[in-house]
Amino acid sequence: KQAEKTVHQKKEQSKTKCRKARRRHINLVAEFNRRQRKNIWLETHIWHAKRFHMVKKWGYSLGDSPTEKCYRACYRAMTNGCLLQDLSYYCCLELTGKENELLKQLARICSIDTGLTFEEACCLSGRFEGSLNLYRADRYPEDMLGPVTFIWKPRNDSENRQLWIWLHPALKQDILRELKAIFQCIEPEEMYISEPVTASIQEENQVDVVLSLGKKRKKEDKEGEKAVPVKKIIGDGTRDPFQSYSWISQTTGIVISDRTMEVLRYRLIGPLSHSILTETLKAASLQTV
């Protein structure tokens, strides 16, 4: 009787998993994807979240101010070493088509009176990055859209050129709408959907396993939204992943593509920036086909 009594006195084993089990990779990815439904994370989000006060702006979660007094350390890095900033939240628009047609239409939204234009020789060769202010088509000096930076892909044997325009996410919709208007680009017949948004059967099974580990984690939230697949989210806070992100002109063949969060952007400040890049990046050997 005493033995039976001790058995009944034993507490039920807690259903909450230990910290090691809760921090398994598959659990973390599912949890991170769930937390990115409203605000997209940058690649360096985890690093910043541990050291900065985070703010939610323009559909992203960004580091606003440091939690520690690191201003002297940052100043020392800028003056003597190297300081890196993550600018991946800036939007990137890619224009592809014939160089003459691109320059002809882009000249309508900028002016030589403000400084450099897309036709500047040093920038057109692809060696340097340029910056300018964009206006609505044929409306200079009125109706300014905002400042942007751009870089051309160096020339090759093909007659088509590629141009990347970097702009602030607050200006993206207005500038994208203006570019689509001057190039007469329409949405293609096929809708482009980011691949990571769709999940395979195996990945859906993994989600079910993750969701069944604890009763607190439900497959559907209060709004009835389905759980995000266990896969990295590609997209940005300024674009619906289920909408087209590429437009083509039937008359000129110009293609406008939204490359936001597909091309990361970092800024290095300091006297050792060039040497750090030289040691980090290794040039690939040229291969002729």
TrEMBL record:
Pfam families: POP1_N. Residues 3-97 form the Pop1 N-terminal domain. This is POP1 protein. It comes from Nycticryphes semicollaris. Signal peptide: none annotated. One of its GO terms (cellular component) is ribonuclease MRP complex. Transmembrane segments: none annotated. The gene is Pop1. GO terms for biological process: tRNA 5'-leader removal.
